[in-house]
Amino acid sequence: MNGQYPSVLLEKAVGEFAKLPGIGRKTAMRLVLHLLRQETSAVDAFGQAIMTLKHEVKYCKVCHNISDVELCSICANPRRDASGVCVVENIRDVMAVESTQQFHGLYHVLGGVISPMDGIGPSDLQIDSLVKRVEAGGIQEVILALSTTMEGDTTNFYIYRKLEQSGVKLSVIARGIAVGDELEYADEVTLGRSIVNRTPFHGTT
Fold first, then answer.
1. Which residues contact 95 (CB under 8 A, 6 or more apart)?
2. 133 with 60: CB under 8 angstroms?
3. Do 25 and 14 touch, CB atoms closer than 8 A?
4. What does 144-184 look like in DSSP terms, one character per residue?
5. Is the pTM value of this prediction over 0.85?
6. Burial of 101 (0-12, 13-18, 19+ CB in 10 A)
7. Domains plus CATH for the chain?
8. Strand 169-172 vs strand 199-200: parallel, antiparallel, or unpaired?
9. Sequential DSSP letters for the chain
10. Distance between CA 197 and CA 158 in Å, rounded?
11. CA dihedral sign, ordered 172, 174, 178, 179
């Protein structure tokens, strides 16, 4: 046992929390000690929520957003404009765009961006399923709303090449989002304007 920890159980718990992104060992220690001070029922509920999330959460069979059922509430909503699809990197970006209340279409969650340095290629993402959605008909515009990073731009261009002959309109969000920024950290007004002021995408930005 590490001498600084009075308990192996404490050390193991801190080690697990420290594996979470953005959580160092000091923060992990504070979280663990906070849980120890709570009622057993509260900690049980916390643990059960995590277990249930992992074992029971589903991904929408159409857009790959997180859902409790096979078809997410956005795809299942008849009031959404099914002719427009906003392509985002992850579930957090769906939440960010939704918070602007400026987009009323559907989404397509890629699950990441092309990043050779990280070993992520097109086949690791939900790009083929996007192409199939477009080929199935009904979609008139695909809005590329990926992070304004080199990886995001590379992914934009790859999707453009896959869809340029489809006849669908391809747009990219306006560069109100600073280069290098991720969507989830943009404020709602800036992101909303970037969506409203989107521009046609022709392989370059």
1. 184
2. no
3. yes
4. E---SSHHHHHHHHHHHHHHTTS--EEEE--TTSPTT--GG
5. no
6. exposed
7. 8-56 (1.10.8.420), 76-200 (3.40.1360.10)
8. antiparallel
9. --TT-S-HHHHHHHHHHTTSTT--HHHHHHHHHHHHHS-HHHHHHHHHHHHHHHHH-EE-TTT--EESSSS-TTTT-TTSEEEEEEEESSHHHHHHHHHHT---EEEEE-SS--BGGGTB-GGGTTHHHHHHHHHTS---EEEE---SSHHHHHHHHHHHHHHTTS--EEEE--TTSPTT--GGGS-HHHHHHHHHT-EE-SS--
10. 22
11. positive
> Which tens digit of pLDDT belongs to each residue from 122-143?
999 999 999 999 999 999 999 9
What residue type is assigned to position 184 of the chain? E
Taking only the tens place, the pLDDT of each residue in 34-90 is 999 999 999 999 999 999 999 999 999 999 999 999 999 999 999 999 999 999 999
